[in-house]
Amino acid sequence: MQQFSIIHVTDPRIRKQIREISGQQYVGANGDLFVFIVDLYRNQQIRKQLGNDDGRLHTTDIFMQALEDTVLAVQNFLTAAESMGLGGVILGSIKNNPAKLVKVLGLPKMTLPMLGIQVGVPDQKPQLKPRLPLQFTTFENQYPHEFNVNDLQDYDSHVTRYYDLRDANRRIDSFTHQINGAKLNNGDPDKRDEIGQVMRDQGLALDWDSKK
Ligand SMILES: Cc1cc2nc3c(=O)[nH]c(=O)nc-3n(C[C@H](O)[C@H](O)[C@H](O)COP(=O)(O)O)c2cc1C
Predict the structure, then answer these.
(1) Do residues 87 and 119 make contact, with C-beta atoms less than 8 angstroms apart?
(2) Domains in the chain and their CATH numbers?
(3) This prediction's pTM
(4) pLDDT value at 211 more than 70
């Protein structure tokens, strides 16, 4: 059903607004900025203009399908860019203020911004970030419930070495330290947590009721 769209952000004023939302100085600076949109508006219009109602467009199922389309497009876009010798960074930070981003991009109801990609000619060759060993992420037939955090010690030391030796933004950190820290701690109310409300305001996944 092709339920995604891509906005190439070329206007310096809009790039600046998105940079401010993200809080990251490189967003909308060098290179090209693209924002990937979960898009049920187009298919809503098709049905409407052909004289039909919205049908299942406001269900969580269809929203999830559109999300799947959009995320696949993001990864394929990045793979294509890298195959041409370009480099890119996926940007979740553009959603630090989702309601504002909807406004800045002039998004109609039935759409939601999902991820950005900043793409350009790399001026460095960053080291690969070590990934979790396959034994922790790939299973056979059924999900194994037993898990022991101590089994991640080797992986943690790989990650610590990576952060210590990488060219830019060095720090002392490990995987379990990140998961056990600020990224997931309860903190002050965060604009990012408004995403659920913004989804509803956009008319998406309206059949899902958290109080049920
Ligand atoms: C879904 C997602 C969102 C991300 N959002 C941001 C972001 O907002 N800002 C940023 O600098 N990097 C962001 N990153 C990039 C990561 O911080 C990290 O640099 C990248 O995943 C490392 O990938 P690599 O090991 O393949 O180079 C994001 C990555 C993913 C997968």
Answers:
(1) yes
(2) 4-122+194-201 (3.40.109.10), 134-178 (no CATH)
(3) 0.94
(4) no
